[in-house]
Task: structure prediction
Amino acid sequence: MGPQPQEQPLKYRWEIPAIDPEKRRALREVLGLSRISAQVLLNRGVGTPEAAGRFLDPASGTLHDPYLFRDMTRAVERLDRALEAGEPIAVYGDYDVDGISGATLLAEFFAGLGHPVRVVIPDRFADGYGLSGDWVERLAADGVTLIVTTDNGTTAHAAVARAVELGVDVIITDHHEVRGALPPAYALLNPHRPDATYPEKRLCGVGVALKLCHGLLVRRGAAQRDQLPPSLLPLLDLVALGTVADMAPLTGENRMLVRAGLQLLSRGERPGVAALKEVAGLTGQRIGAGQVGFHLGPRINAGGRVADAGEGVTLLTTRDPEVARDMARSLDRANQERRRVEARITEEVVERIEAENLGRRNCIVLGSPEWHPGVLGIIASRVVERYHRPSLLIGIGSGGVGKGSGRSIPGLHLFDALGRCEDLLLGYGGHMYAAGITLEMGQVEALGQRLDEVVGRMVKPDAFRLALRLDASARLTEVNRELTGEFERLAPFGPGNPEPLLLLERVVPVRPQVVGNGHLRMTLTRADASGVRLSAMAFGCGDWYDGAVTEGKPVDLVGSVSINHWQGRETLQFRVRDLRPVPGVVSGGMA
Result:
């Protein structure tokens, strides 16, 4: 890639926050933080020392009363009756990490009360998403009188109605968007229902399941309304798995729960987690949101994508280390197969986008009878990252019916956009950034045209160029172990609390080279920082070499800093997200 115009980033537009020196100084003085960390807190909307103290120590906060959920009283009263009478209970989960984690959490909770339950994880291809009428009939025939869902159920009108006919009560715990009337469930816990009064809207499925357990213990006098009792704390590793893998915002209650859950995952006391860390090469390492999102979560997900999602529940519930190792190895093999299938389909998707010039449309919609529906959500995410367009990919199901997965961009509520195409769909569900659909394959082209028009009306053209919100400029001497230690206190990072992005101005690349699968590795230095060297890596940016990045030619870089673990060694590393190949003057007060 040749030299770029001065002042222009290569991949993104850079957004620079406003600076309030007085607020920043107050945070620094009270909390003893660096200038950079204090600015990061301000950028996250944490503007006072008191709020910053709560942010840095989430465990000091209090949880919302579970009885703020609509139907919580009905749900726990019905559960209590079932437990007292010894009724057969079934937990009905979902085939992704959130649904598997939620089902595991409920199963362990009820087992802890001395009431084992039956766990059902539907098959993505045979059963489809959500509570199915076939499963309701099977469970009723087996004597089940109460079904508790997790991460699904809000749109299962027909299945819940069938349960009512058969005398089976259904308690729904879910977090997906609600459209139209609610199903006739005995109780429905969902922070998005139209009459919802629960203040935290961003819980994922496993989080809502946890609140149900908390509510039951409050009813039994075994818990306070604003604090989790000791009996629920060992389940927070499951909450962390589901919340991070489902990309729920890591703010508010989610931040409190995930922070505690990551500590449990780091210890790996659950045999399934220890085995999963072993096959992922993470034994002995501290687990953060990144490790869950890129290593643990995909392996659990792989069962539901290309194999048997029930293996995830077996992995997480077993107390036998050998069984855990067998399940972890099986899921690891499924993940390898998932990656092979994903690579093949991704190549075909990109070829079609380029051939049909879809990268300039407002929304990318493609379908094929050759595409495995289980991996399309992952590929849609990659398409969004590459083309900065909301994307919907559809694979063929049975009888000419397609199943698709979509991913969105900031500023577009994908679920709402699909709602404006409802007449073209057989069904859809999801939330702002991700959704699933079913439709007749003959409607794919019409859906693409309609969504292109809908998205064009819903977002501004500038939304199609992804932004990097810079947190602070940094001198090379400031990027050190002390700073990464402060950033650990700001973690976990993810939606709602992104990893801090730093601007390094006029740094000089030394020994740049392309390594691995097209990655660019280099060492950074500056003339005014004699002897200071910082390792840097730009993943997937090998084409920058000897053009935008040249030995000895100063550049401005934007990226994040972390400790890289490799072959037993820990090194400080700057992960480059974007650059300006010609040094320029930055305005806007990034001091």
In short: The CA atoms of residues 9 and 580 lie 5 Å apart. The first helix runs from residue 21 to 31. The longest strand covers residues 502-515. The chain has four domains: 1-17+470-591, 20-56, 66-267, 356-464.
